[in-house]
Amino acid sequence: MITFSKNLQIRLKLLLSYALIFIIATLSAWSGIYYRVKSTIETNIENELKNSTATIHNMVKTAASTSIKNHFLSYLPVYYKTGK
Question: The pTM is what?
Answer without folding.
Answer: 0.60
